[in-house]
Amino acid sequence: MIDDAVLQFSPTSLLLLNGILAVVMFSIAIDLKPRDFKVLAKAPKPLVVGLLSQFVVLPALTFLLVLVVQPQASVALGLILVAACPGGNISNFITYRAGGNAALSVSMTAFATVGAILLTPVNIAFWGSLYAPSAEILRATAIDPVGIAITVGLMLILPLVLGVALNVKRPDVAARLHGPLQWLSLVIFVGFVGLALAANWAQFLSFAGIIAGLVIAHNALALGGGFATASLARLSPFDRRAVTIETGIQNSGLGLVLIFGFFGGLGGMAVVAAFWGIWHAVSGLALAYMMSRTEAAR
Fold it and tell me: Rounded to two decimals, what is the model's pTM?
């Protein structure tokens, strides 16, 4: 049974993943300046729509998917947890390749990361408690919102602040670091996920078939939800591409940290997050290629 599976993930591995995600966030932050946030404050509609799509629309659509499919407890909670995470580390790169508003994408990642301190644990607890099987897991694990908030803060908020500060104080250094650091962090992250999968390959193969269809459907729902939300809000195609991609590219690395840090590496949750980490990159790059074939009106 997938609910009985617990993947192997040492404390050292968890610490390493925390460090990788911190480097990823820092590589995004060194491209930001305080004035970027001031510009959005004057015209906040695309950012507000994007954050609503990320933290309200996606979790609600995920819950509807869970109600329709009725998956096992840990699988359902894995889908809910991934949906509760902020945008993923590759969303900015994919938005740029898609010809969307990369500045909006970076700002959404930054604001969603800050918002995740409160909204990620709230969404996990709220939506997870509405589905009876996953509510049992939440009661058994006694989810700690404060602990999750501290984890998110140290892993994501601190590097964000340091990155922005470096860009303000030493923009020349930030400019030199930006490109190489993004590629390096992405390669290290992919390598880390690969090693983690190799250590649990037998269990992953046993359950990947069950999980694959659900994750693909969930990711399609996320991308479709982002597109629909941006369209209903009448955002420009340029902004709509950013919102679509930001909603469909989730920080599954953060999801893995939370799963191993607070849920004991529960098999269904971990396999969902791991498969998400692979699939959203494939679907995001494919979508970016299709979008890039036509120029988006601003």
Answer: 0.81
Q: Which domains does the chain have, with CATH numbers?
A: 2-292 (1.20.1530.20)
Which two structure tokens, joined as six digits, stand for 87? 């945008």
The sign of the torsion formed by the CA atoms of 150, 154, 157, 161 equals positive
Matching residue, tokens 């679907």:
283
Task: Please give the angle made by the CA atoms of 276, 76 and 51, to the nearest 5 degrees.
Answer: 60
For 97-148, the pLDDT digits (tens) are 888 887 788 788 878 888 888 898 899 999 999 999 998 888 877 666 677 7
Retrieve residue 149's tokens.
């908030």
**Which residues, 6+ apart, have CB-to-CB distance to 264 below 8 Å?**
6, 141
Q: Name the strand (E) or helix (H) holding 275.
A: helix 267-292
Neighbours of 147 (CB within 10 A): 13
Longest dimension (CA), the chain: 54
